[in-house]
Amino acid sequence: MTTPRVEIAIDELVFRGLSPVDARLAAAALETRLAELATEPPAPSRARAEAFRRLSPVEAPAGSPGAVGHAVAGAVWREVAGGRR
Question: What pTM did the predictor assign?
């Protein structure tokens, strides 16, 4: 049996209110958190239904690019996993 593979492609990521440096830190935190979530069971089981999804805005504590990235990763993962976690 092969291990399921999850691939998430984010074409555009907009961080409003963050400096370019903080936006890069938030993006790195997003990528790291998504990788962590992908290793934890249960893996998403929903088949891809479309090529485009737009998520609702995410709120996170001010002054913490890591928290922003973590919050965005959680929102993305919930969408991909069908509301789980």
Answer: 0.76
